[in-house]
Amino acid sequence: xxxxxxxxxxxxxLGILYGHHFTxxxxxxxxxxxxxxxxxxRYEKEGIVCxxxxxxxxxxxxxxxxxxxxxxxxxxxxxxxxxxxxxARHQIGPxxxxxSVLNGIASEEVLANVFGSEKIVHCVAQGMDALRSGNEVNYxxxxxxxxxxxxxxxxxxxxxxxxxAFFEETALPYVVEDDIMHRMWAKFMLNVGVNQVxxxxxxxxxxxxxxxxxxxxxxxxxxxxxPIAQKEGVNLTEAxxxxxxxxxxxxxxxxxxxxxQDGLAKRxxxxxxxxGTVLKKTKKYDLHAPVNQYxxxxxxxxxxxx
Length: 306
Prior knowledge:
Elements: E1 6-9, H1 13-26, E2 31-35, H2 37-46, E3 49-50, E4 53-54, E5 59-61, E6 71-74, H3 81-88, E7 97-100, H4 107-115, E8 122-126, E9 131-133, E10 136-138, E11 144-148, H5 157-170, E12 174-176, H6 180-200, H7 206-209, H8 213-223, H9 225-231, H10 238-249, H11 258-265, H12 275-285, H13 290-303
Parallel strand pairs: 1-2, 1-6, 2-5, 3-10, 6-7, 11-12
Antiparallel strand pairs: 3-4, 8-11, 9-10
EC number: 1.1.1.169
GO molecular function: 2-dehydropantoate 2-reductase activity
Organism: Trichococcus palustris
């Protein structure tokens, strides 16, 4: 099982980042940017720029009949996952492997229900600081993809090996996780704090890298995830929170997360993936999350003004 072709669904900050990286590494003929006809025409006319370079993308119509891609990367916002599934359909065959770089802890389950769990390699996008403005993306840190398979799915080892070989070929930073579910929950905890607080406080990474009210609020929101993870059978601890804080400390101080970008652009955010998920699970386990309730309410108030 070798990955020759990769299809990317979603041209947000991460989709552009990975599309540009892979295209430069292996050429446009092996990299497909899957879009609808309207978007294709617009992107071809206006162009996409990444770190000052015009992207030489191969755009593929989502309805075009063709050989399925070997690897499909879903890189949309959580609010667009259903649409992305339809966009990806013609790219996915029996041997296609699917990676989701969406925030949260639910997209893999949704994709597995549609395309089959045997195609899913779990993935967490971590440490990047890509910022999109219009049709341009800039980043300082490309971050890394943390990938892995569930311990009870050894039959997917060949898929995981193929993904790692592809990342080696394209020089994309990655880490294979022995316990990928633990890593996904740790990233979820980070996002619950960083994304929501900086949207509500209208800040940048610098505001949560230094001591102060925003950092305190972020840590309090993150800490509410710990007991939920334990109830879910994931041993998430204060040590993981400290590791998340170390990751946050390395982000570009002037950068901002996706939800803050949503707020500036007056777009619907992924709040349901973060505090929305926390609140559902606290209700399930009879726990309490007042900080996430506050953040959820504030984000909804902000979105109501659009």
